Amino acid sequence: MKDILGATISGLCIIHCMLTPVLLIMGISMAGLSFLESEWVHQLLAVPMVLLLVWSISHGWRIHRQRQPVLFGLAGLLLLIASLSTTDVLETCLAVSAGLILILAHLLNRKLIRNGAMQCA
Length: 121
Known about the structure:
The chain is an all-alpha fold. It has helices at 2-25, 30-33, 39-64, 68-83, 88-120.
């Protein structure tokens, strides 16, 4: 369940990152979009993303001892952090890439946990 929730929040992050440019292209004014760029929106998405990543990947590690979810999780986290200190276009590219990698980390972790549980049964 933690991995599904983590993947969902990472997906919401991707939608958030893609939504602003799309709405701008559609002609929505920046004044109407200011809440999407607010720091609290980034924190609202980032804090649970990081907490769920640490919680679910560390739990999975104790079960399956596979490095891939840990490495994908770290790569996604590093890209997410890097996105915070770049320009708008690069920020979006890095954040979307981070979200996709984090989704991959969560889904792989979930699969490995399930495989580990089936092998123990």
